[in-house]
């Protein structure tokens, strides 16, 4: 069972890694891709307001306060924002989470939504299935496949195949055409207006209240295991995003730190050992002296960074070396190197004993190269009197 879970994670991470082969990164308060602009790679956008009018010949990753997509997207849209308005002329699939989400245009495959207010416009067409979870879901468009929803209120005035809904209130309006079954689970029976067409069966299930039982260890253990695995994946994705931002905003510094390990591996190991064991001792002494409390807080902050960035820089070096085995000519993308290295480290750290040993040396070498690279940079700045 554990191997099966690990396999699913590896597949997921490999799929997540694929966009790095072609990657365009944009960040800022307002990000706009003009109507006549074409992005020939995957696009990652972080900003307060994101407007995509042009075409993206790959996947789109958009995260901000407001996201609007109007152009053609050849790949999949992965989106997270307070307000999401997708009016793409064509898109393969959509995965979106946010406060208000509106979907229009043609989607050739699946749509997965999670949010407060979810709306499938009357002009929208979904080629396969729709899955939605959140507050209110309103469907006026056409869904060729099945519809599965877990929401507070479900309203439908469009078309779909099998419809399975778990909701407190369900309204099937007169313009609805369901070519399959309507299966409803909730406190109230569905309101089905005259004129609505349902080809299959209509099934209604009321939730059964079970007597509260004291949770046993056998029932709690799988939940704890799943939660731990889920958090591990979430933290992994968060570190991926931090690494991408670091490369995008401080590419030269990242390259310098990588070269530090490549050129001075044993010196990096020594600095890593110093950072791992000396910093906490110094922090304890400063706290004991009281007068050194501000420096102690800074030391804790430095120690946290030391641990966090160690795997990022090690992943960059590992990924670059692995890719260099297959790519003999041309530059190697730091983004691709980072994602390949992170996936390799993630998989290795899932192995019980070996994982712990690898983590230990990742902190030593990774933290050491970060400290040494930063120190070398500070020395160079001082020698050149740049500050």
From TrEMBL:
InterPro entries: DUF8173. Residues 230-369 form the DUF8173 domain. Keywords: Membrane, Transmembrane, Transmembrane helix. It comes from the Bacteria. The chain crosses the membrane at residues 223-248, 269-294, 300-320, 332-354, 360-378. Pfam families: DUF8173. This is DUF8173 domain-containing protein. The lineage of its organism: Bacteria, Bacteria division WOR-3.
